[in-house]
Amino acid sequence: MDDSLPEATAVGVIGDRIVAVGDLASMDPWREGREVIVDERLADKVLMPGFIDNHLHPYLGAIMTPMEIIAPEAWRIESGRIAPAADSPERYRELLVERLAAHPDKSDWFITFGYQPSIHGRWNRAELDELCPDRPVILWQRSYHETYLNSAAIEKLGLSGPSVETHPQVDLSCGHFFETGNKLVANRLMPYLMRPEWYHRGLNITADLMQQGGVTTAGDLVFGAVNPDFELAALDACIAKPGRPLRIVNVCEARGFSHRAVGHSAPPTPTECPDFAAGLEAINAVQSRGSRHVIFSKAVKLFADGAMFSQLMQMKPPGYIDGHHGEWLMSPEVLAEGVKVFWNAGYQIHVHVNGDAGMDSVLASLAVAQEGKPRFDHRFMMHHVGFHTNAQSTKMAALGAHASVNPYFIHALADDYSLLGLGPERASQIVRAGSLLRSGIRVSFHSDFMMAPIEPLMLAWCAATRTTKSGRQVSPEEQLTLEEALRGITIDAAFGLHMDHEIGSIVAGKKADFTVLEDDPYEFGVKRLKDIRVSGTVFEGEVHLLAQPLASVLSEQGAAQTTNHGDKPSVGALRVAARSRRGRYRPVPEGCCATDGDPCIFLRQLAVWAREQDWAPPA
Question: Is the peptide bond before 359 cis (omega within 30 degrees of 0)?
């Protein structure tokens, strides 16, 4: 990933740094007078710069990954195994029964993540009681914001009385708790999930998944959303421990820091402007608390509109086919104020944005900040970028902005959204990575875990081929070359974290971080990026090989590790499913604490729930 020296056959390392790149003969000046080890273990492998996922959420992975994963898509889970996709009601029931049988302790919780009624069929309290009359069971919905409980679980959590029975977002007869109603479940359950035996296990699983995907550096894009001390202690215990070949780059969540700085605990509404100046002081204070494995970036995270998976991004005309509208996470006025405060303080700014109306809001905020105080190489980063226009790409480039996109949207959503919500034209053009690059913008890829698997090569494949679940290739004009796709998980991903001077390419003077591959991307080509096997990583000069090479969950190898019954749905099958879900978009009630299925919002809610129940240390 270095234009000046694109290929080499040897790399020299002293300590944690690269000192020379070339062939073995060119290393002679460095070898003279030194005791040198010529390490041949990787002679038949391919080294790339250590992969970088510059937007994920370790905290959310810690809570969710220990759950039994039974989801519409296949997921890599503990020990590198793959949980097969449950793509039909019959398959969901089969896997649910199988996983229940594997956990015979009926006094303990059984919690499964990934339930989606439109695909898995309706499981209410009565059906769960029939299947599990004598043990507490929770089905956690794929969106994070809904749960389905049986009677034993409802009784164990003490969910009774008028406050539950009359709650507008609880259907007690069905055991369904959604939006603010789910707060009742989470309040009582979180002490169980935050125990070290659960939480630390989950954080270790998440870290293992990073290594299995070849990741050596990851960005935590909402650090401090819950509690900085709690989060740092957990990262120190699970990430900074000896033998863990990972680096976490913390980007502070500006609204959470700002709200806590003045003693507020309840989540602010989209139109409520936090005291960003107080938040700036609090964020300044944590910048010095980094370590070798956990470092702080002089950067903050802000939000614009809602999430792609729930179709609550803000869209310009013609809007959504069914007439529903998106939601603001920060109103344009609040966003503009946050941008101004941190821009003037010299911080790098990352903004969550998904719709083209949301993008207009972000661009307007950036334009005002740039006009008031011009800055160069500020690396203002747009994150996710679900749908935007070519005109907006041009303006992004003119203002000096860049993008970290989630190309998994193409694979997971383009088929469905062409029939529901956006229509074929706009749905085929989600995540316009090609247009962004043609405009001169740096583009990198991220998982937003658990929105997508932590598998950078699979994300590169999604961006490069634009292949949907049904096998279609959409908007081929937006496809990327092999080189562009690989830059998105290496040097351009490092650029997004303002770390391309340290990581992202194999260059003398940089950190000795490499991803070890069993297969050569330049031999496999774009169409087989998802099939390339990761053999391990080298982190700051230390070799860490996996027990066996692993390809992505979408690879032929991944498919062989599952027993997924049922074929991928055709477009016709999707059309039937789409009609059955026409009524799924309901207005968000006033005062609802959750406007979409975005994990960043979920984390902020957890912070409040924790403090309300006194089971987490005060912020």
Answer: no
